[in-house]
Records
---
Amino acid sequence: MTTTSPFSLLVVDDEPDLRTLYELTLVREGYDVETAGSVEDALARLASRRYSAVITDMRLPDGSGLDLLRHIEQQGRPEKAIVITAYGSAENAVEALKSGAYDYLTKPVDLRQFRAVVGSALGRSGQPLPTVVPAQLPSALAQGLPAAPAAAAPARSRSGEPPAAAAAPTPVAPTRAALARLVGHSGAMQQVRALIEKVSRSMAPVLVQGESGTGKELVASAIHKVSSRGSGPFIAVNCGAIPENLLEAEFFGYRKGAFTGAAEDREGFFQAAHGGTLFLDEIGDLPLSMQSKLLRVIQERAVRPVGAVNEAQVNVRIVSATHKDLQAEVQAGRFRQDLFYRLNVIQIRVPPLRERLDDLRPISAAVLERIARDAGVAPAPRLSDDAFAHLARYAFPGNVRELENLLQRAVAMSGGDVIGRDDLGLPDAAFGDTQYADDLAALPPAEPRPAPADAPLPTDLAAYLDDVERDILARALERHRYNRTAAGASLGLSLRQMRYRMARLGVHAGAGSGEAAADGDD
Ligand SMILES: Nc1ncnc2c1ncn2[C@@H]1O[C@H](COP(=O)(O)OP(=O)(O)OP(=O)(O)O)[C@@H](O)[C@H]1O
């Protein structure tokens, strides 16, 4: 056997013909290959040297491929393991992934897939797909539908991530940094981080469960960054936000002329995520018709764009997330059992913030640091003891996202270095078991507003009020020639408060206003 390849593989199968087929296929790819016909034989070879990867049949005469997997795991060996299972035995595949396999293949083995999976395990993504930047679907344009998620998906990341572009993979981010973004040292968060590190070594699908705003997307993005595909694309898709009639074209792409308005070939989410990770958020919202198509792609690892004749192989790791109880959805007949089984190989539960109050202080501190940094202010404000105690009593139905919004507003209200209890703006009605509605009714009436009684009510009050505030700040700035100190003073705000509010609402000090000079008291 030559030793010119940087990759050495051990193939374990008791059928001599198959062994030879795998060996020849891999040698042709330029790998060094050794073979074994039994568990005992394989263990003897493993005892004498290291390999880049082990490819093993599940059923062996003196045991199972799982025995080899467990050996590799227990000894902390570096080999990636790929398991070949009988067709249709999803249980075996799931078992293999849970035992630490990098990936699995089903018999009869498709050799293209075989080469792709081995290449992926070794960090070589195989044949690159032709890269076409996802764009808005013509049908969506024609119907005046919201921007197609293919374009919106990477940009929708709310975790402060730079948008993941399919055409320009992001550089490898340090593993520690990805995990450190998940602030918190509660037992639950430590467990989440440990699980992320563990699952990042395999291709196993992960289902992230948790209430809205708990950090599921942050977890998915950390899984991606920590894994060997971290330098590939991370494509986040909100399954609930895509109109049903566009799902197939969005997920799998389409060919020119496939439907009215399809003026050119477009790739879908799967092609865009090739070599990286596809994050399927709100997977529980996917209609049943699309669930079966998704299952097929996951099993076949190939997609056929709408209007195309041939399928294209894709190498994509799936991480999905839901705030729903998917098991209950399965029981109610709204979610396919087989898809659930495929997606739920490894589950990571992100608990609600109220169940890990130990994390409240460090997350608040991290959020305040970020707010101050964005506003160009130092030092970052901190919570008074009283304010923190008040916050700790709150239930945070919107979890970390709500905490972020609350602190943004509190900083803008306080304007000083210390955020007091009143700056939090949490009405007493928001606490305890009291009937929220009754308590609100008991509050003194708000000051009359000059809005006409028949004016339509806003559907998003927070966004509406932000718009009002943005408009007032912009007008005050204009009136005071973009001097923030003067504009702020005219509204009863300190310069610091003004800066926070402007940063939060994205209001700029005006082109060429020479803002630093204008606010000499900064
Ligand atoms: N542990 C944490 N440390 C720091 N920031 C966090 C943490 N968890 C969540 N966040 C922040 O909270 C916000 C919401 O997180 P994320 O979008 O990941 O939640 P989600 O569970 O995916 O929400 P949804 O269910 O609504 O999609 C983001 O800005 C994220 O950066």
---
Amino acid sequence: MTDANDQSRQVILRTKGVGKMFGKFVALNNISAEFPKGAITSIIGPNGAGKSTYFNLLSGAFAPTNGTVEFEGRDVTGLPQHRFAHMGVAKSFQITNVFPQLTTRENIRIGLQALVSRYDMWRPRARLRELTEQADELLARVGLWESRGRTAKTLAHGEQRALEIGMALASRPRLLLLDEPTAGMSPEETRTMMDLIVKLASERTVILVEHKMKLVLGISDRILVLHHGELLAEGTPSEVRKNEAVKRVYLGQREH
Ligand SMILES: Nc1ncnc2c1ncn2[C@@H]1O[C@H](COP(=O)(O)OP(=O)(O)OP(=O)(O)O)[C@@H](O)[C@H]1O
């Protein structure tokens, strides 16, 4: 975790009064929040709270109906998704998004190849060697180097999610957005994924969506709590844990 004073000095992402309507339904209402650079910020809340909708606004998948999104001090509201990727924002989804027939290494290489310029077509062999080295480095970082020759479909669910994160890292993002990275995982896979997130956060900012509060309390620098599309609470894990409104929302839920 980073020092609290450092965090307050630099903000990588900010939303000002963002809202999202689906027809007449208000999925998200007037959310203003700041995401400190170099920190892990988790967005939590019960089912239907608006977490995924907020995630989609932060990653540029949706434009907000109202309000603005700023990345590194620049207004990026409504910019197309690929512009977010170019600026240094990468994301991974709840649903695993790997190429099942390809090997683990080939999957990562595809992520890297997306960054290849036309010039590289003239020196394919050198480029392939370079890509393979970079892919192996990324595979090691997400704990999959030993599985580099396996086809992705034979990997366990947790390993597929790690692979997807490896693919997201190929663009060397400054901000990594993760939507429920432990969804559907066993307790052991969940622990491995949490360790990986902490490791990755030492090199870049991480924003995480999660509906199980307990899971993120130990690893987050800051927590935002959404409920019925509103920002119910925000603060450090201990502040949020003590918050009466948060306790009420989570009370009686089996898994938190
Ligand atoms: N495309 C859409 N069209 C209409 N309503 C939507 C759409 N997407 C989300 N909603 C509604 O907006 C509200 C917030 O949904 P959202 O998926 O953001 O919640 P969530 O906190 O991520 O929930 P979960 O933990 O179940 O994934 C829900 O009531 C949902 O039904």
